[in-house]
Amino acid sequence: MPLGTCLNYLFMAYDYDVLIIGAGSAGLSAALTLGRCLRRVLVADGGPPRNEQSPGVHGFLTRDGIRPAELLRLGHEQLQPYETVTVQCLHIDKLSKEGRGFRAIGHGTGDDALTTVTARRVLLATGVSDILPPLPGFRELWGRGVLHCPYCHGWEVRGQPLAVYGQGRTVTGLALLVSRWSHDVVVVTNGPGHLTPNARRRLRRQKIGIREAPIARLIGTPGRELRCIQFEDGNELERAALFLHAPQHQRTPLAADLGARLTSKGAVWVDSGLQTSIPGVYAAGDTRPGTQQALLAAADGNRAAIVINESLTREECPR
Length: 319
Hints:
This protein is of the alpha/beta class. It is about 30% helix and about 25% strand.
């Protein structure tokens, strides 16, 4: 059997060329590019995106302010002409090596039946989950009154009284950044802020207040906007929104379970070509280290798709 025939048989032994795990901006963008490359692609849509509670996606050229669900609806719609791309409501539970490729086992939404698929390459685009403070109001107001990114939401609350939650260097940097959008910013630390004398000077220079009293709860409006911060001593601080840099963890343990290298902050490490420490497994969007925005995630997915397609092409066209 000629070499080319052998290779084609080997490649077709896998269900798909690429399994994309995650159907947010990164995953759908990668699927679009790979579909245009005539690649056999399965997008495993494991559920709602991280920004589901947000009223709009901002800074996304031609889509500024679009609702997250509508952005994803358009992404799915634009995949329909590409017959080699399949999107399934599928949560991947396990990923393992399968010859020169990979085997994934998952289940559908509300379905106990297991689905097994194989693919030559895998793109992890599952994103992260935010770990919010265990105080009343943070989870309830998340995405509207409690915000994670001034680049995404600062313009919407510009000129209003704002709060920044956290301690130490992290809260200092974020508060200074948020002061670009408002001249009335107060740092709330929920106890000792662990701020250095220099940090206090920098905040004071920008007229940023500091409240180190323990917080009892956030009080919101019926529309899930922030009305005020209530402290344990009974005092209240009226604010229009609160920003914080929340710790994060990967939405799935697939990378770690496979033995992929993680950074000190829990992101999936990738090289300059977006490949993880496991050959054939790539990561894009919030899954990997870097600035987190929907537009950047979409660009990341496009770039990952190009790298993956060229990797597959080299494999199919040996020297």
